[in-house]
Amino acid sequence: MILLWLIVILFVGGVLAWAVARWSALASRWISLIAVSADFVIGLIVWLRSAGRVEILHQQAWLREVDWSWIPSFGIHFHLALDGLSLLLLMLTFLLGIMSVLASWTEIQDGVGFFHLNLLWVLAGIAGVFLAMDLFLFYFAWELMLVPMYFLIAIWGHERRLYAAVKFFLFTQLSGLLMLIAILALYFAHHAATGIFTFEYADLLGTPLSPHAALWIMLGFFVAFAVKLPMFPLHTWLPDAHTEAPTAGSVVLAGLLLKTGAYGLLRFVIPLFPGSAQAFAPIAMALAVIGILYGAILAFAQSDLKRLVAYTSVNHLGFVLLGIFAWNKLALQGAMITMICHGVSTGALFILVGGLQERLHTRELARMNGLWQTVPRLGGAGLFFALASMGLPGLGDFVGEFMILLGVYQKSTILTAVAAVGILASTFYALKFVQYAFHGPNDHHWTLPDLGVREAIIFTPMIIILLWLGLYPRPVFNTFNPAMETLQQHAEQTLEALRR
Amino acid sequence: MNTADLLALLPFLLVAGTSALVMLEIAAWRSHWLSLGITLVGLAAACGSLWLVGPLAPRKVMSLLILDQYALFYIGLILAATFAIAILCHGYLERHAETGEELYVLLLVATLGSMVLVASSHFVSFFLGLEILSVALYALSAYLHTRRRPIEAGVKYLILAGSSSAFLLFGMALIYAQLGTMDLSRLEGLLVGAQNSPLVLAGLTFIVTGIGFKLGVVPFHLWTPDVYEGAPAPVTAFIATISKGAIFALLLRYFYTVGAQHFRAVFVLFAIIAIASMLIGNLMALLQNNVKRILAYSSIAHMGYLLVAFEASGGMASEAVAFYLVAYFITTVGAFGVVTILSDEERDADTLEDYAGLFWRRPVLASIFTLMMLSLAGIPVTAGFLAKFYVVTAGASAGIWALILILVISSVIGLFYYLRIVATLYARRPEAAPHAEPHSTAGSYVLVVLTILLVWLGVYPASLLKVIRTVLPI
Fold first, then answer.
1. Does ipTM surpass 0.90 in this model?
2. Of B98, B80, B86, B36, the residue nearest B340 (C-alpha)
3. How far is it, in rounded angstroms, from Cα B379 to Cα B384?
4. Which tens digit of pLDDT belongs to each residue from B130-147?
5. What does the pLDDT look like over A33-60, one tens digit per residue?
6. Averaged confidence pLDDT in chain B
7. Are strands A76-82 and B59-61 parallel, antiparallel or unpaired?
8. Which residues from chain B sit within 8 angstroms of residue A219, using beta carbons?
9. CB–CB of B19/B38 below 8 Å?
10. Is A64 helix (H, G, I), strand (E, B) or coil?
């Protein structure tokens, strides 16, 4: 039941925030903040309570589960379930949700109620994606998070918001529909083999498929997730959407929406179609490495600060894709840590850029220079998150990327070598960010207010989390490992079923 | 003809009687509210009588009509939609004092025609129903006779529908010439044996042409945008939903009964029509700036989607069509309902400009319109999503992947213009001088009910699916 509450709180909170905005915008902000925080606390309690159990329960047992019949004539269930993987991503969702509400506190001034409605509903959709264990429900949630995100970009975005919003929507919708076809093909293949109509994840695992059919169905899923991830060359919606979105929108896009793609690969693509995924892995990994380099180079080439940060996502998520398709323990653990740390560090960078834009009314690097002199504390935070993003040892991103490289090394030396160059390339954009924005003489004679209390409240926990994951990532591994082992088992079982 | 037959015809008699009653009432004493009241009571009574007829089903009345569960389901749907449209008409007519209440008479007659169509089991009742429907629609389209556009729409519809009827009749004649019967139950056995006869194929092609005109599918779609644009908004809602829905139900019944959808020639013909409708409907809609025209092209595309379900054939296909039509009725009546409410005495609210920033002025109305657009686009939480899902599922179960792929691609194209309308609703613009925008309380209630239905079916369709499953085998 508690899983349902997580989603209901966000839905109802959104409606309430909309309703009260008529009288008070401030009340609307507080209601949103309380709703997301309530979810965060619930998630935290579930996590702490499960901390002991996770170690013991090796065989698959969900930490929490809700399973009701929904549309019986199709065999569709309302099935939500939580394991370590979902739990970690949910915690990230709620954390970044809180940060997004705080980050929009002064930025959003018109349509406050409707803004928070959309923000909370996007979070509800994302939570649904991370929890759904029925493929129909998954697709439902997958589509559901699009509409409020579209509104966030199209209404509160910057100059080219409509173009970016429509592009984002069309990319995800087309790929989503291809996934729907793949889901249905799997559904009917399962029926043909067993005589049962079901969308249930656990039942569909190990569905016997001809290699040809499996490849096509796998590609249907893969395209949907690769667009979200985004994988080179399907990433072109990303820089536009991230740049044009309001700060909260960028945080949710980069921090969470991209993770739904990685989550889908982990949860569905490889366990459901291990054979064809293995066959496809070299292509996916090659594209991942191209994405790593491409993202780093393009980030370096940007003059718009927000676009620079946007391209770093292509770089980081390339590592995640690489780690997922390497499919061994080290790489998967690395991918998980990278997902979380990228969410935190990139989210923080977007909030920082949003703060700068609110002060300067520009995102052009050329108009900045020497900001350290007027906003030293903001500069310090910027330096920290930029270093985290480029993978400085001691901070979370480094752990993740390093483990991915270790894992991938077992599969391919060449790819590891090239991807390692990608880490090097990421130092360029990180240093460019710091150097152009904060260092040097204050040519434009800016005098700006420095980091305020609200911003300090946002950045402090994010800094702490990055340090914590950089120095002591054990708790995350402990939570993730059982889930990961189950996924690997599923993949093994499916492979064996296919061999028979 | 005995009492049981008369009882089976009760819904028809009630609707026909109501139309006569409204006519007499208008002659005796003009009162807009009273006319609406009689119409609504008559429709509700006809709807209630379905429960009396239900136990008799399936019952053949002469050889012309068959009252089975399938017919009753669609009759109920038609009556409910007419009920909603009649209420919407009221607010619309209030703003046009010079035109009288005769619209309700025509509306009831057109409803009667559609009811005959969905229960038809004979070429004669097919043609009779079609003409009752069409003749009433000519007058309805041109109802606002002081404006130019409605007259144009009426005449255009008259000419094209007239010629399509001619095609249809010729097709029927050819089949009759070859097989010697016009009774559907006798055609059932005969047609399959004669499927290679040139006369039968030519006859089928002509019939498909006639039906194609009525459905407004490519290449018989040219009247659709003009009539949609010209006709008064609630009448457009009627044309878009009830007239097309009834024809589609009839198409399904005729072709599935005789098994004609399995003929290779027929399958290919419909596949081409479906593909062309989906692509051309959506692509042409991109070029429009008029909301009614956009919705017209969107309806062409939607008929294409329905034909994909038709092509899937089998039990799941007719279920998918039924669900799709329910969702489509709700959505389309809702969308045109918003247009109706926003229309003033000068003209219908049909330019995109009329909708700019609507959300910031009338949030509820704009939210309803948003949901209707999202439903047309097939986005979750709306009935339109499950409807599209159903169609795709039916197609997947039949393995017609090419058609499904085109459906997917064209519905992504469709997103462009639905999003364009939605974006317009939320556009910010400098506060215009506040001018009184039209209101209609009764109409607003209808919209709210439709929206609740839309979301309810989109989230919890199990109850409707159960009804559809028990009712539908043709």
1. no
2. B86
3. 7
4. 999 999 999 999 888 778
5. 999 999 999 999 888 887 665 544 445 5
6. 88
7. unpaired
8. none
9. no
10. strand
Instruction: Give the nearest chain A residue to B360 (CA atoms).
Output: A111
Rounded to whole angstroms, the Cα distance separating B419 from B99 reads: 36
Counting one residue from chain A and one from chain B, the pairs whose CB atoms sit within 8 A come to: 67
pTM, whole model, 2 decimals?
Answer: 0.91
Digit-coded pLDDT (tens) for A83-135: 888 999 999 999 999 999 998 888 888 888 889 999 999 999 999 999 999 99
Report yes or no: B385 at the A interface, CB cutoff 8 Å.
yes
Burial of residue B471 (number of CB atoms within 10 Å: 0-12, 13-18, 19+): buried
Q: Which residues of B, range 363-382, sit inside 8 Å of A by Cβ?
A: 374, 379-381
Contact present, A346 and A302 (Cβ < 8 Å): no
Residue type, A463: I
CA A168 to chain centroid? 15
Q: From CA A405, how far away is CA A387, in angstroms rounded?
A: 19
Cβ atoms of A256 and A93 closer than 8 Å: yes
pLDDT in tens, A439-460: 878 777 777 788 888 888 899 9
Nearest CA-CA partner of B406 in B282, B241, B222: B282
Q: How far is CA B225 from CA A191, B157, B222, B284, in A?
A: 43, 11, 7, 10
Residues found in chain B = 474
Structure tokens at B221: 């779609």
Average confidence score pLDDT of chain A: 88
Under DSSP, is residue A35 helix (H, G, I), strand (E, B) or coil?
Answer: helix
- The Cα–Cα gap between A386 and A350 comes to 11
Residue B380 to residue A178, Cβ atoms within 8 A: no
